[in-house]
Every structure is written in C-alpha cells, then in structure tokens.
Amino acid sequence: MTAPYDLAIGDRAYSSWSLRGWLLFEAFGLPCNLHRARLYTDEFPALLAQFAPARTVPAVRMPEGVVVAESLAIAEELASRHPEAGHWPADPRARAVARALAAEMHAGFTALRGHCPMNLRISYETCEPPPEVLADLERLQQIWAWARRETGATGDWLCGNYSAADVFFAPVATRIATYNLPVGAQASAYVAAHLAHPAFRRWRAMGMVDGADQPFYRRDWPQRAWPGPAVLPARAVEGATADNTTCPYSGKPVTHALELEGRRFGFCNVFCRDKTAADPEAWPAFMAIYRS
Q1: Do the Cβ atoms of 148 and 156 come closer than 8 Å?
Q2: Is residue 247 within 8 Å of residue 254, measured between CB atoms?
Q3: In this structure, are strands 33-36 and 59-61 parallel, antiparallel, or unpaired?
Q4: CB of 28 within 8 A of CB of 75?
Q5: What is the pTM of this model?
Q6: Which residues of the chain, if any, have pLDDT below 50?
Q7: Is the peptide bond before 45 cis (omega within 30 degrees of 0)?
Q8: DSSP labels for the chain?
C-alpha cells in the first residue's frame, strides 16, 4: 500500500535536518515515500522544485497535497494527525517542556552547528572547540538537566518516553560523538542512547553507504573509532550464493551477498546488501534470518 506522505531528504550522512524529518516518521511508526537528493549537486534543486515552496529539506507533502517544509511544523502536523504515535508526551507538563526544548534547538546553537557540521561517517579525537561552541555545549547540558528535573524523567530520554524533543537533539548528539566534544556524564549517557536508538542506527547504516563522501565536511583533525555500539563484522562478497533465496526486505530474488561469521546472506540489490553490512543489528528483518 502506498504511504500517504512523501518526504524529501538530503544526504543521510550529512543532512542534520533530514535526520530529524525522517525520525519523525520512522521512530514513531509512520510510513512515508522517500525522495532523496545529494547536497551540492543539481539533484538538490531539482528535488526541491517537486516540493515547492520548500527551500530546503526535510519537506513533506501531506496526503491532500500541501507541502510542509520546516521540521518543527512537520512535528506538530504529524502529532496532530497521529496523536496515537506519541510525538509529544501525554502529560501536559512534560509536553510543555518537550515543546520548549524543540523550539530552542530549532532556532539556536549556531556556533556548534557552524563549527561542527553533522558527519556520521567519521569521528575525531578533537575539533579544538572555540569558546562559542563550549558555551553552546554548556547551554545544552543546562536545558537537558532542566528537562529531567521538570518532568521527573529517569530513563534514556529527556521527558519520559522518546519524543519529538529527542528527535530534535539527535543531530546534536551525533556532533558530540563525531567531534568528541566535552560534556559531562549525564549528557554523555544521553548521547550514547541516541547512538544506540534502533531508528538512528538504521539511518546511520544507510548514511555510511549512501553515495560518496562530501568534501565540504572533511576536516584534518586526528581520527578515532565511532563511539556508538560495536558493529557485527559483515562484509560484501562477490556472487549471489546465499543461505536465503529472497531479500529479507523486499522478498525479491537474491542478486548480491554479504558474509558474516562464515555464512552468506543475500539481498535484491547493492544498497540492501551494503546498508546491512554497515550495521547488521540495525535491521530486524535481517537479524531474523541471521538468528534462524
């Protein structure tokens, strides 16, 4: 069945706002038809022309045809149309806190954004953060701690269950991970929760194989290993011989394969194979055949 929404995004590894838009669907169980274009290419303006009057991504075409092109507006519109999805906390106090957090993130932290653009393909030992970035980090930690005090949240997320507020901070969490930014223990635990979130792991797995590196995001700082969950050691292999005969995602015949712990698993195209090899545990349909 065709999904009622069309979502336009940019490069998964680099487009922080696209990550927010996608999580507002994926993390809350809402299907959408995905339309992707590479940043800094002719693909991008061509995609936006299909989502007028949007000037950037994410942009969503609603079932009746209207386009919503701001992530905070997308969050509010989806929450209104799908209250059962749980984008905002049900408790009024927690909901007010969550909306305040999302609004501040939507409009602020420009020093951090400018010095540390989102890049999910690499992690650095340091990025030599200037005072303005350190001030943004201090503010983040203040409002994260405030949210927990106000809502009584004791788990992974700021306002109780995972909410749109957490979606809005997901790209900031990746920046802290990518650039090894200095934050305290509570903020570090919050970052770790984002890196381990199932929907985020799927997004990053796709971002790792979603086109070539974008030179704009390259930095010369010393590198370190990605600080997220350890990844099973899968690798792409030649040929289509595999334990399974149909792709775990599409049900189509196997044409490409990966190897994991001496076993071969098949997929219907290169992207299905490579996104799985990037992080096998991110994909429940694959893990079901892997564990069988």
Answers
A1: no
A2: yes
A3: unpaired
A4: no
A5: 0.96
A6: 1
A7: no
A8: ---S-EEEE--TTT-HHHHHHHHHHHTTT---EEEE--TTSTHHHHHHHTTTT-SSS-EEE-TTS-EE--HHHHHHHHHHH-GGG-SS-SSHHHHHHHHHHHHHHHH--HHHHHHS---TT-EES-----HHHHHHHHHHHHHHHHHHHHHT--SSBTTBS--HHHHHHHHHHHHHHHTT----HHHHHHHHHHHH-HHHHHHHHHHHTSSS--GGG---SPEE---S------EEESS---S-SB-TTT-PBP-EEEEETTEEEEESSHHHHHHHHH-GGG-HHHHHHH--
Write down the residue that tokens 């701690």 correspond to: 145
pLDDT attached to residue 3: 76
Cis peptide before 280 (omega within 30 of 0): no
Whether 59 and 11 have beta carbons less than 8 Å apart is answered as no
Joined tokens for residue 93: 């106090």
263-267/59-61 β-pairing: unpaired
Length of the chain in terms of residues written? 292
For 68, 110, 125, 170, the CA distances from 173, given in Å and listed in that order, are: 25, 15, 16, 5
pLDDT of residue 1: 46
